[in-house]
Structure formats: structure tokens, C-alpha cells
Amino acid sequence: ELYSFGLEARDYGLPVMSSSATVTVTILDVNDNNPAFTENVYHRRINEDAPVGCSVLTVTAVDRDVNSIVTYQISSGNTRNRFSITSQSGSGLITLALPLDYKQERQYVLTVTASDGTRMDTAQVFINVTDANTHRPVFQ
């Protein structure tokens, strides 16, 4: 925010002398707000045969500080590094980084962190893997 006002000073001499100036004050925002996820818990299902690189989920955190840039990272739960996250347009896009295997892992519980460089918030992301029909029937 910007505030401007005029200032005038006068003396009591003869003749009266005066001077004036314009004062401008700029109020800068300090980083006093944490980023806050719009949801504390996210849920998603993904089929085990989903292609690498596909979008899984978008998470969003809002920071009320002016000109704040929020970045995202997966801070825990990313077993076998199956997922990645990138910051895009103020949100965090979780994508599939490596192929899934229903028999190895049926659920991932990711902790995602949103940070403005100083302050942060976390959210839980539950990703359930669904079994794909990948085996032909066998006659016995």
C-alpha cells in the first residue's frame, strides 16, 4: 500500500518563512502467513496400468502474503519413488513417475509439503492402486 501526504513547516520570524514537501510511505507485506492447503486430506484411485507421466492429482495451498510463491514437494510416503510433483500455476501437480504394481503396493500415503520459502503446511494424499486385468484366463 502507498500513502502520500503534504507537509509544511513555518517559522515565526518576520518575514514568515516556510517550506513544504510531499511524503510518500510504502507499506511492505512481511511473510507472516503460512501457506494453507485447501484440503487437509486428498483421496485418489489410479489403475496399476496407468501410463508413466499421467496426472494423478492437483493439490493447492493458498498463501495470503502478497507476492508469495508456493512450492510443493513430496516429503514422505513415496515408496519406490513412484510419484513426482511439480509446481504449476500456484498448485502442485502429482504425476506418475514410475509404473505401478498392484501386487507390490496397493496404497500410497504421501505427505505433501507446501512452502513459501520460510513457512509451510502439509497435507496427506491417499492414493489407492486398483488391479488391472493383466492376466489371461488359463484352462486347467
What is the β-strand count?
A: 10
Instruction: Describe the sheet with the most strands.
Output: 4 strands, antiparallel
General form: rod-shaped
Strand content: over 45%
N- to C-terminal separation? 78 Å
Structural class: mainly beta
Oligomer: single chain
Low-confidence stretches: none
Helix content percent band: under 10%
Describe this structure in words.
This protein starts with a strand and ends in a 10-residue tail after the last strand. It is 0% helix and 52% strand. The strands form three sheets. It has a four-stranded antiparallel β-sheet, with no helix packed on it. The protein has 140 residues and is mainly β.
